[in-house]
Design a protein that fits this description.
Blueprint lengths: L1 H67 L4 H70 L3 H23 L1
């Protein structure tokens, strides 16, 4: 009976250990995703900077061309409209990236809350396991040993033989 109880306790401890390992793996995965997203944002920022420099260079070329060729005014106006459209798209993309980053931050915060709750539950379970371990130790200290049982078995056998002899005498 006690061995079954000990086995149940050990099984529960193994289960808790597996759950803790699973949570740790999920946290590691989320950390990697955050690192990857940070790198993507950095890359996008660099691309935006490069595009901005290219647009600045294009604007200078347009200004130079306007000074040299007045007939190309319509083309410059068209290019300016395209740049404005690109700026609008860039602004929309920046907003979308900001929204995604905000969503990620909220998700990480919610995950941290869940991890804290899980840690509290694990601490409570650890306390209960400690109590059970103490109870098992107390039971173990107060129970009969194998030697005690063998002694009582010999004594009962000996008394049974004596009773049998007395009956048959």
């Amino acid at each position: 009976m006690m061995e079954k109880t000990l086995k149940l306790i050990l099984d529960k401890l193994d289960s808790l250990d597996q759950k803790v390992n699973t949570i740790d793996q999920r946290i590691t995965g989320m950390d990697q995703k955050i690192t990857d997203m940070d790198q993507r944002i950095t890359d996008m920022d660099q691309k935006i900077t490069d595009m901005d420099q290219r647009i600045t260079g294009m604007d200078q070329k347009i200004t130079d061309m306007d000074q040299r060729i007045t007939g190309m005014d319509q083309k410059i106006t068209d290019m300016d409209q395209r740049i404005t459209d690109m700026d609008l798209r860039l602004t929309a993309e920046q907003k979308r990236q900001g929204d995604l980053l905000h969503q990620l931050i909220n998700t990480v915060a919610a995950t941290n809350v869940k991890i804290s709750e899980t840690n509290e539950r694990i601490d409570a379970m650890a306390t209960k396991v400690d109590i059970v371990i103490d109870d098992v130790k107390e039971i173990k200290n107060s129970m009969a040993t194998k030697y005690d049982l063998e002694y009582y078995d010999r004594m009962i056998s000996e008394h049974s033989r004596e009773i049998h002899k007395l009956k048959n005498s």
